[in-house]
Amino acid sequence: MNSLDVRKENDLIQSFQLASEFVEKNYLSELTTHEVVPIPPHIESLTVRQHIRLFKITKIVYDQNEDISEKLINIFNTVGNLNSSLILILDSKGTDVDLYIGVRSIDPQRSINEAKEGLQKSFNGHFPGTELRNLRNSEIEKVVENLFQSRLSELNKVITAVSGIPALKDVDKKSYIQGLEKLIDSMKGETFSAIFIAEPVQPKTVAEIYQGYETLYSQLVPFQQTELSFSENDSKAVAEGISNSVTNTINESLAKTQSHTKGSTEGSSRNESVSKGGNTGFSLFFSVGTNRTSTKGVTISSTLSTSDTEGTTTTTGTSKSDATTTSKTETITEGTSRSLQIKFENKSVTNLLEKIDEQLKRLKSSEDYGLWNCACYFVAEDAQTAKVAASTYQSIMRGDNSSVEHSVINTWDNDNQQKLEMITKYLTKLHHPLIRLQVNNGLNVPYVSPGTLINGRELAISFALPRKSVSGLPVLEAVEFGRNVWTYDNNDDGKTKIKLGKIFHMGRSEETEVTLDLQSLSMHTFITGSTGSGKSNTVYTLLDRLEKENIHFLVIEPAKGEYKQVFGGRKDVYVFGTNPTLSTLLKINPFRFPNGIHVLEHIDRLIEIFNACWPMYAAMPAILKEAIEQSYEKCGWDLEESINIYEEPVFPTFKDLLNTLPEIIHSSAYSQDTKSDYTGALVTRVHSLTNGLIGRMFSDDETDNMKLFDRNCLIDLSRIGSTETKALMMGILLMRLQEHRMSFTSTMNHELQHVTVLEEAHHLLRRTNFDQAQESANLQGKAVEMLANAIAEMRTYGEGFIIVDQAPGLLDRSVIRNTNTKIILRLPDRYDREDVGQATTLNEQQMNEVAKLKTGVAVIYQNNWLEPVLCEIDEFKSAKPYIYMNDANNDNDKQMRSNIIQLLLEGRVATEQKLDLSHLDIHSLIKWLEQQEIHLKEKQILIDNLYQYIEKGAMSLWETNRFEELAHLAALFVPVEKLLRFARSSKDFNEWNERVSLALKRYVDLQENDAYEKVFIQCILRERSKENDEFKDFYFKWIEHYRRESAV
Fold this sequence. Notes:
Mean pLDDT: 82
Helix content: 25-40%
Radius of gyration: 56 Å
Strand content: 15-25%
Structural class: alpha/beta
Shape: elongated
Number of strands: 30
Low-confidence stretches: 267-303, 771-777
Distance between the termini: 154 Å
């Protein structure tokens, strides 16, 4: 080599060896051939109690709007800053997996609790909702022991280590496919364990490594390139120049003294010079040079001088000079130049330098994210399973630029039990095994481990948690909602609040309470959610908190009937229903209205309710309205003045309407077909409201309105089978509530005084089609709109509505629009979520989250809140079931009926057969009679005759000419049709009498008096024959049969 080349070949060889071992990590591929270092005392002394902590991950919750990897980096950096190793354990049992994360102390003298707290708090902070179960020391020991204990043989399990640099496969992170769920799913059905160990590298060590790479780079870079340069240059130049110059000078001098001088000078000179030369050079290895010059010259000189001077001289002179110069120059240059440059590059050195650059970049990033010594160890019963799992994991982790270091797999099996046992001892301490490196590299490196140096960003790939659910570990995506209740005015001081629950954030309940402004509930509340989502518990909690603030409630429940099993047992709660065997029967007359309400406005509201509940077309609403007006007029009402001729106003019932409707229809000018249609549509529906339990409910003997509308009251309509009837009953209750508030509330914009719960509100407030048919307007839509507006306007009277429904799509849109507070529980249907989500300022992700809400968790929003919040509603635990004591009531009713019938029939019975009725309390009978569902006119006749009995001991109804009227009144107290139907299959009159007598005992007690029974049966038959002409023949035959046996 030329003396100019200062490079040394030995330096290149040594640098190559170092780069091969410690840049490309070639030594990793031969770890199994090297000896395992006996476990040092400082590692041997590591114990679970003092140095290891593990958490079992039972649920993972991700925020889909945040980068999961970046959050993992923060968590791992927290652990690294606390100078602790990071541990991740995956234990697959074939059918399901257990995932553990934890820390191990590096310094045996330092407590592990700091790192444990740091990991737990950081994990909970970055992944709120994720559930970490802190394992006890005994549980940790059991987990570690089970990792290495073989269930098939006494031999140790096979251990395979994976070493390499993890990297992202998709740098743009459009999709993440490197989660541990890929490994778990790939190895589904296999039993294996994976232990991930990452030990932090201290900044001082990082700086030394960085400096080592720089030194190695400096040693290699001179050998990367060699340049050779060759050049040659020829040139020729000719120059000629001519110059002439003439100067004349004239000088006159006048002197007072004389001077005489004479001189002569002559000279000649000649000179000639010729020069020739050349130069060449080779810069890298050698240099040679030549030069030659020749000169000739001749000079001749001759001088003669004479001088004679005397006296003193005075000089006066004049000088004149002229000069002329002429110059000419001509130059000609010719040249030729040639050069050659040769560059040599050592590609092996270049590739090594690029890898070192990559390593330097990775180390540089470790200043931000930390540097870790990381490896993964797979443990299985057999080598095949361990290697397959390791290979799968290796393929998942490798990505762009993973080739900066070799990625290798090493397996220790029972072929060399000593090494396997020593490796196992290291891993039971959750520490990297130490391997003695037997390589002569000129460095003092006593041992290495299977770990490779990776920065915090790469560690987040290596320790990537599952991104999707796997067997045994649910992985959920959650959306963030508000963490506090903030209002626009943010001035809630002094306002009464009711607590509903606690903030629910990312799958976990927090300590922040969710409270509602009590007075805001007067602007109504809408609660929705699918079956089993927690709607009922939400209403229970809300009503319980309102009751504690002395706010009474009315619950109208058309389904399930569960409220009475929660609140019905309270002493301050009234319960009414539609089945008298289960609860007190609700009784209400739709045609009654309080003072202060005009009869015509009440009729208009009533018609709108019929329109909302019944399908009405053409002139049906007008006919129904006319029939209702005539029914009022028949009861003595002046419709224009809204006054009644009686001192105590009389109101019609559905029975009165049933009598009036056919008259109105038949007197109309419609065709016979149209009349038949109207009769079928209207009369049939009204008739269904006059019989059975419904007929008993629509009675003029009303339930006290104070109990219904001013106390705590539960109305159970769940036993009504007809949807139309349910809606009608709800509408009537709503109308009566509105009129009650209008009549008894003196001020406007009243504070919240009372709340009404409308369960399954779509029965009444159903969304209708806005299209208008040619024959009729959209009556049902208009009626529903009127009801919705009535609800909205009732807030001015201090009445708040809680509208509950599981199907928002079935409700009129105004219900959602006009409610200030919205509570949304789990809703699977997309259209339902959109209906309520858009009214609650939810974004698309939040609306999708509503479909996955946990039972009892709801989105809550009020119109003055800055954002909706997720709330876990408090569980209501103070249920007091309703127990109805109906036997006593039934016995009392039966006794009262029996007493009245005995009194009515006494005048038709022979004296010797009469019962002793002197003990009867007639005034109690009158009071009971006033509460019964009997037409007012008939009730008044009965009461008048009872007063006659008190005064005279007799009744005018006993007169013979009034028997038909007596029979009608007596038959009112028993179900005539049921009695006759029961006896219909009898073979003869004797059997018929026995069967009717047996049936009568279910309803009245005539003290086994045959005379009273026979008279009562005659009354029943007389009443029935009046209604049915065909039955008269049976009645007369029965009379003949009875007369033959005994006299009547």
